[in-house]
Amino acid sequence: MGLGHGGLFLATPLQTLGALAQLAPTAAFWQRIVFSALRIMAGFLLAAAGGLLLGAAGARWHWVRVFIDPAMQLIRAMPVASFVILALLWVRSANLSVIVSFTHVLPVVYAGVLGGIADTDPKLLEMAKVYRLPLTARLRYIWLPGIFPSFCESCIAAMGMCWKSGVSAEVIGLPDHSVGDALYRAKITLSTPDVFAWTLVIVLLSAALSGVLSALGSAAKVSCSPGSAETGSPPYRVGRPAGWAESFSRIFRPPERVSQPEEVCMAQAGWASVTRTTTVPG
After folding, report:
1. Per mean pLDDT, which range of 21-30, 55-64, 113-122, 162-171 is the poorest?
2. Is 63 exposed, middle or buried (0-12, 13-18, 19+ CB in 10 A)?
3. Residue 237 pLDDT more than 50?
4. Which of 9, 90, 247, 264 has its CA 20 to 30 A from that of 279?
């Protein structure tokens, strides 16, 4: 049984599922989910693209990193509530979750991209410089395999933060037709089972999107990893420098010396010995 009359203080799992079963058939339930999901995912995608570009720029130019790193540290240290209150001065409450999700995902993706670039095998970079690889080949065979694993991991880790910060912003800003607004209304009306039901919805959405992102990342790793169809060897996994070094060695391996038949070598050796020992009669 729940704690308090009707689960006033603590709802049981059955009460939570019952409240969710009452909310799910309504159109307002799905309208709130779509409203919040579109804005939170918009902030996530913008942060992923921005973190990728800023991370690449910071790794390429030191002055960019010196300028960006303090801002990233400030965003990490700032509480969500404080940032939401400040953001309400600049944007409408309907777009608040976009801004808050963007700012809390950006430092995570930025750090992941920097880490991936720093972990790139320097031997591959030296090989690319020696053979004067074009930019497209460097991106395909060096930078993408080095950045992609850490970029995917950072995006998966940031998905949960994105939903937590986005819904927190909605609870404070109270935009109409949002999940955060429904969560706040359930709280002020002491509908504890509804509070647990909406919390369960947020957790399930975050877990489902994280799973989809992980599956897409795994599929992209398999499709991007080069394999050897001729030798039947399995494709190399993205992010393994040894596999990529072997792949490069296959590409740039000099032509092998064709071995001559044993009889020809023996004949040549015999002819050479005859020419060395035979003297011309004088």
Report:
1. 113-122
2. exposed
3. no
4. 264
In this model, does residue 10 exceed pLDDT 50?
yes
**Three-class HEC string of 102-152:** HHHHHHHHHHHHHHHHHCCCHHHHHHHHHCCCCHHHHHHHHHHHHHHHHHH
**pLDDT on residue 218:** 82
* pLDDT (tens digit per residue) in 129-171: 888 878 788 777 788 887 888 888 899 989 988 999 999 999 9
Asked whether 56 and 117 are in contact (CB, 8 A), the reply is yes
Q: What is the model's pLDDT at position 169?
A: 92
Question: Given this model, what pLDDT does residue 34 score?
Answer: 95
Of residues 112, 119, 136, the one with CA closest to residue 50 = 112
Nearest alpha carbon to residue 142 among 250, 252, 238: 238
Give the burial string for 71-98 (b: 16+ CB within 10 Å, else e).
Answer: ebeebeeeebeebbeebeeeeebebbbb
CA atoms within 13 A on the CB side of 238: 25
